[in-house]
Every structure is written in structure tokens, then in C-alpha cells.
Amino acid sequence: MSLFMRPREIWSFLSGVFLICSCCLMLQIVETRLISVMLWYHLAFFAISMAMLGMSAGSLLIYFKSDLFPRERLFENLVWISTAFSISVVLSTLSLITTIAPSGVAGTLLMTAVVWLKLIFILLPPYVLAGMAISLALTRGPYPVGVVYGVDLLGASSGCLIILVVLSWADAVSVLFFVAAIAAIGAACFGIARRMSAESGPPRLAFRVLGRRGRPLIVAVAFGLVAFGNAAIQPTTPSETGLGRYLGGLVPLMSKSSLDFYPPQLARWNTFSRVKVSYEDVGQPMVYGPSPAMPAYITSQRFLDIDSSAGTLMYRFEGDLTKLDFLRYDITNIAYAIRYQGRCAVIGVGGGRDLLSAYLFGFRDVTGVELNPIFIDLLTHQFRDYNHLADMPGVRLVVDEGRSWFARTTEHFDLIEMSLVDTWAATGAGAFSLSENGLYTTQGWHHFLSALTPNGILTVSRWFNPKDITETGRLISLAAAALREEGIERPQDHLFLARSERPGLATLIVAKSPFTADEVARLRARVAGLQFNVMLSPDRDDPSSALAQIIDARTPEALAALSARLHRDLSVTTDDRPFFFNQLNALDPASIRLAAVSGEGILRGNLLATVTLLIIVGLSGLLVLFTMIFPALPAVRQAPAVLAWFGSLYFLLIGLGFMFVEIGLIQRLGTFLGHPVYALAIGLFGIILSTGIGSLASEQMPLGSGPRIIIWACLLGLYLLLLPFWFPRVIAAFEGGSLLVRAVVALAAIGPPGALMGFGFPTGMRLVNAIDTRPTPWFWAINGSAGVLAAGTAVATSVAFSIDVSLWVGASCYLLLAPIGVALAAMAHRGLSWSPMASETTG
């Protein structure tokens, strides 16, 4: 049908397709953002898995129940399904924000599995309905499939970018209501197309309930008003009295391990965090690592909560530095004993605490680099009268990702401080995180060391457990490796480490030049005066110390042997394996036993995170069996055994390969783009768009012969095999660029493999349909199931081995497709066919 025969009908239909597909991707990204507030994990793969599972199940439902969804009722079904999708987004949201699912949910694996099963069932329904709508639009519509599919891809990829803008406007809950309103507008577009079409006959019950008399538009208006209303009543500006203390909208209900019904003084959201500012508290000042010798002080302060897991402090400061003397007793500030003049830079401004410390000790040229613009806005606008840091001469506040800024700057500093800083709030839980972190890799530390003056120092503070060296040990292995890569033969001459008892905190000082005897003496005097403990010092040689053994482990093999003896992962974190906070060796039974018997600490948290990952994969597997595999079994039983085996292997491999590549690329982009939400949004945008282009190109350049399939598989496999060798160099060349420049570079790297991967599914469907159309739903189920299960498996592979290994697994899958594809092509060319007519497929 020409696109100009009934233009209003066609464009209404295409608008509906665009909006529904856009909502699907927006939903995935916002749910990922929301889950990182509610839980200890940044589960991007979880949202992707649920989307794939739900949409595949919805597509198969349309296929198996085709009599319920005839072509002549296409628009009627699209209207009520899209309206139901809109309503299900809201119901899913309300269920999600009132669900408590803390780490270590219960004392048993069974209860943990039950809670996660509940979360799966909360997230799944919208994607099932979306899958039904998209499948109907692609397989039942009277319009060119290429055009519909192109609009599908355009909507999905646009949603990835639109949501970054929308999340900067409002909180995640309001944005989800906004997504529901957009989906209802999509249903209204389908309603316009229905009125313009030739559909006739009495409407069915579902349409009468959800689609008649402008109900989709009513739903859209209602949800839109809730979205704007809920965003409007958020405490986004300080309020000490009145309604501001009681109107918190839906957002404050969410926190880890509990429901909080009392709103904070202020709550602000953006694409990667929720910051809650508490009401003013007057009392003993909170410092990270207080000295036992600290006198009693009284100060006014506020706690700034980040995603319910990380936090920072803002003190009342009116310009009198003597009111901040309590900061002299914090272990994070011991480096000021030897460096207190010149230029200072702080990574992670937060509430301004570390910048005030630098100013207190004598620096008058202080630069603060902060990823989160909310903190800079609080200090420069909303709480400027409370904390006058921004008014101090010589203080400069920069909104940028720390690693990227130091890669770009030509400035040099006498001291760089990074105290308890994580790249994003989701890793504020530390021990509970499986997220990658670009600030704690050798590549990141080279930028910091390069920005030091010849006598400059880098000071880094992390939590310390006196019974376990995990996080501190890994910090030492990272520092020693970074120094050696800078050409320093004796890292121990450049390292000084001290710790506090309560709470357990360690501060590592890394000097670009060897410490002098006078500097060591002054550091020791400061540590002794504050009643802290020295753990590493250039003037002390303790070869039996585990930390000293880490420094002496000069090769990866030596460090691996030490890790094996100590039953914890002390390997050097790099961009290839940037999981600094995960130190459980999942391949070592002794490490697992050690984590299981420990009541707390980083290993215990890592074990909980790993078990959670396995539970999610296991539950997803069960759902895949009952919603996809078992229903599709009758279809494959009708096919010849040779087709069943070769076809199953083909679609299994492209499902596994695609997801391993997608997850690997998103993880790799996380350290490059500076935040997992950026990596998820930009990564999905690039993969969806390029894969769609490849799918459409496969119609014009079909891989119907064995030689073409071999060339395609080899090109894709070799690109992916070589990607880990050249892409790090590209990252090094461009990581100092703006976010826009880095995003363009990321898309340029994603585009070629994405386009080539787009050939895989349509090529397979053409080959098997040329042989026998009956097992089509089975192959669709195999492909979807492999993708669902591979998402979590790819994350586990990257954590256990490396991101490069995940990419190589994906490459191997595509290389293995060559002989299987050749066999299928040969079968098709021989005319091996058992069905005279091609049936509809959801591909």
C-alpha cells in the first residue's frame, strides 16, 4: 500500500508505533535508575533481561493466538493493548516503589528468590503488552514492513536519548507516569487510524473497556497531570516550615530496606542520582574518620543522601575557618601535614567538605571537580547562604567527570584528594556492588599522577576492615601497579598508609617523587598525635605484612598467587576489568566459604551480590522455560531433526552472541562515558539503530549463499575479536573530550558491529523458512531465551574474567555461525522444504 493513499490513517499508525517503541526503551532506562535507588545494585542487565523476556513472550502470544488477533481488527487490538500498556506502567511503578528488597533480603535463599520473583512479576507485564503491540504492528499491518520496522527503530533509539533529557527535568516516578501518558497518546494515535480505516463490526470487550470514546486520551491526560503534579510538589527547594515539610510526592517512599514517609527538606533528581538533603542538625560534627583525640565540637550540618546508599556532608560555614577546626582530626586529611600550599584539586565535591579542608589547612587555589551538577547547584545557589564555600576567593567548582577532566587538563597540582569517592551513587554501597568504576583503574590513575607537580601527592581514602585487607589491599595493588607503569621501580618509597579504628578508614598517600625523611617524620608525627596507626611507610620494611607482599608482587602471576593464598581478589583493576569493589573470587571455593561465614564486610556483600545475580538468572531461566520454550516445543517437533538441530544452534548462537556483545560494549562504555546510565542510553541507542540498519540492509543484500555467510561471520567475528586491542587506544585519545565527543566516538565504534549483527536474525529466518515454516516459533523462542539468559551471564563473565572475555565470547558465537549458516543455506538451496507456503513470523 502506498503511504499516500490514506495519509492520515498511515501517519497516525506510524506515530503510534513510534511512541510505543520509544516508551519501551525509556521504561528500561528509568527502571534501571529507580532500581539503583531501591537496591544496592546497578542492574542495567536486569531491566534489559525483563524487557527481552516480556517482549518475546508477548510476540509469541500473538503468534500462537493468531485467531484472537486477526488482521481485520488490527487497529482495535492496538488501541486496547497500548492503553493497557500505559496502565500497566503505572501499576508496575506503584508496586515497585512500595516494595522493600534490601540486600540479603532474608536469612534464606528461598525468601531472597521469592522477593526477586516478585520484582520480576512487577516489571514484566508492561513489556509483554508492548511486545504484543509491536508484533501486531509488524506482522498484521497492511503497510510496508520496512517502513514500519524503520519507525520502530527510530522510536526505540529516540527513546534512549529523550529519557536523558526528561530525567533531568523530574524525578523517576514522575517520569514513569510521563512515559505512561506518552504510551496512552500512542494508543490514541492508533484510535485515529482505526476511525480512518475500514475496520467494522461490533468491538470486542477489551476495546469497549479501554478504547472507546476517547478513553486513551483521557488516560493520557490523567497520567500526564499526575506526572506534572507529582513533580511540582517535590521538595526541590529548601523549606523549613509549612507544606514543604509534608508534601514529598511519591518519591520519598523509596529507600533501601525501609519505606520513608517523611520527606526531606530537599530532594533533587537527575539522570544518574537522587539527592536528598536532610533538615539542619546541630550537634557533634560528623567526620569520616575521627581521631580519638578530637575535642568536643558543636556545629550545624546537613546530610546529603545519594540514592539511599552513599552520602556526603554540608557544614554551616559563614567564612570563619576556625569553626571548621574539627576537620583537622579526620584521617582523610593527614596529607596536609606535608602539603598545604600551592594548588589543590578535589575529585568529588559533594557537600564541599574536602574543599573546606584544603582551605582550612592553607591552600588558596582549590579546584573541585564534581560529576553531579546537583551538588554544585546546591553550593552555588540553594544553600549558598548556609555554606559560603563558593564565595571563598580561589575556589573553583567544575561540573565534569573526574577522570575525563584530568585527562583533558594541562594544569598541575601539588595535592589531589579523592576521599570515599565513587563514580556514581550505585557504588556507594561498595561491598554490594558489581558495577564498573573508572576512577579506580590504572588508566584513571595515570591521569591523576600526570596532573601532579614533580613533588605532588595523591591522597585516597577508602573504608578499612581491621580483620580483612580486601579494599585496602586492592587500593595498594592499584597504586603499586600505576607507579610501576610510570617507570618507578620501588613503589614502597612513594606510598604511605594510615588507618583509623572506628570507623575503619584508611588513607593512602601516593607521592610522585619518593618521600623524604622529613616528610615521613611529619606524617608519622601527625598520625601519632591523632592516635591513628601507620600501616605502610617508606621507613619501615615488614616483609611479612600482607600489604607489603602486595607491593612486592611485581607481576600479575605473582599477585594472582597471593590472591589465591589469601582467598580474595587483589588483582589490579584496569579498564578491561574495572570492578574495584568486587573482591570475591567466585572461582575459589575457599573465598566463597570465607565470605559466607563473615558476618559483614566487603566479601560478604560481594557474595550477596553474586548470589542475587545467580538468582535472577535462575528465575529468568524458569520463566523462559514456561513462557517460551515449552509453548514452542510442538512447533519444532513437526520439523525434520536436521533442521531442528541446525536451526536451534543458529538462533541460540545469535541470541548469545548479540547479548554478550551488547553487555560488553555497555560495560566498556561505562568507564569511557563516566556513568552507567549514559553507557546504557547511548549504548542502546547505537546498538538498536545500527542493528536496525543492518536488518533493513539484509533485505537488499541477502546472505543467501554459503560464501556470503562466511564473509559476514568472519568480518563480524574479527571486528569483535580485535575491538579490545584498538578501542582502548581510541578511549585514551578521546576520553578528555566533552560528553558529546565521547558519545560520538562510542557510536562510531558501535556502528559497524551493530550493522553486521543486524544481518543475523533476518538471514536465519529466511533460510529456515525456505526449508520449513512450521518450527519458526521455536526458533524465535530459542533466540529470545538465549538473549534473556545471556544478559546476566555476560555480567558474571565480565566480573569473573574481564569485559574483553565477554566480547570474545560474543565474537566466537558469530564465528561459529559460519559453518551452521552454510549448512542451512545448502539445505535451502537443495529445496529441502516441507511446507508449500510461508507462514507469518514475528521476525
What can you see in these coordinates?
The protein is α/β, with parallel strands linked by helices and 843 residues long. Helices cover 56% and strands 9% of the residues. It has 25 helices and 13 strands. The strands form two sheets. It has an eight-stranded mixed β-sheet, with helices on both faces. Strands 1, 2, 3, 4 and 5 form a five-stranded antiparallel β-sheet that branches. Strand 7, helix 10 and strand 8 (395-399) form a beta-alpha-beta unit. Helix 19 (641-673) packs across helix 20 (676-700).
Tell me briefly what this model is:
The protein has 843 residues and is of the alpha/beta class. It has helices at 7-38, 44-64, 74-97, 109-139, 145-166, 172-196, 205-210, 215-232, 353-361, 373-382, 402-408, 442-450, 470-485, 517-529, 546-552, 556-566, 589-597, 602-637, 641-673, 676-700, 706-734, 739-757, 760-771, 776-800, 803-829; strands spanning 266-270, 273-277, 281-283, 299-306, 310-315, 344-347, 366-370, 395-399, 413-419, 452-463, 495-500, 505-511, 533-536.
Give me the secondary-structure topology.
Blueprint: H1 7-38, H2 44-64, H3 74-97, H4 109-139, H5 145-166, H6 172-196, H7 205-210, H8 215-232, E1 266-270, E2 273-277, E3 281-283, E4 299-306, E5 310-315, E6 344-347, H9 353-361, E7 366-370, H10 373-382, E8 395-399, H11 402-408, E9 413-419, H12 442-450, E10 452-463, H13 470-485, E11 495-500, E12 505-511, H14 517-529, E13 533-536, H15 546-552, H16 556-566, H17 589-597, H18 602-637, H19 641-673, H20 676-700, H21 706-734, H22 739-757, H23 760-771, H24 776-800, H25 803-829
Parallel strand pairs: 6-7, 6-9, 7-8, 9-10
Antiparallel strand pairs: 1-2, 2-4, 3-4, 4-5, 10-12, 11-12, 11-13
